[in-house]
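In this supplementary section we document a worked example of the pipeline. Step one takes a protein sequence of length 118 as its only input; no multiple sequence alignment statistics are reported here. Step two produces a three-dimensional model, which step three serialises into structure tokens for compact storage. The input and output of this example are shown verbatim.
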Amino acid sequence: MKKIKIRKSKRIKAGEFRRNNARTGHPAYITAVIKKKENIPTIAEFIGITESPETHNIENIQLKENPNPHRKSDPAFIKPNIEQVVLTNKTFGKKLEDWRFSPEDEALVKIIIKRKKD
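The serialised model returned by step three reads:
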């Protein structure tokens, strides 16, 4: 199995917003990067962000404020569950600068992350 190198400038960290190139191209909030032992791929856990109230017949959770600083007035939703993807150089795009959850939405995200751990 070929070992994948991730350049330091593109290193993925928990707490970042990035485009999810592996799935839909929608933004995602990285909740954890799980580094496994050798010969096992690194996994990234994330919460998907979308403009749709529903994804594949699953109701999304509406945010109080859009985390995109250029679209604050547009509605934004997060998926109710944490998803996982194998991390490669092409999984996520570059970090989305200046994206932030509002304090109310941040508390909601923490609840989703805690629910995953339980």
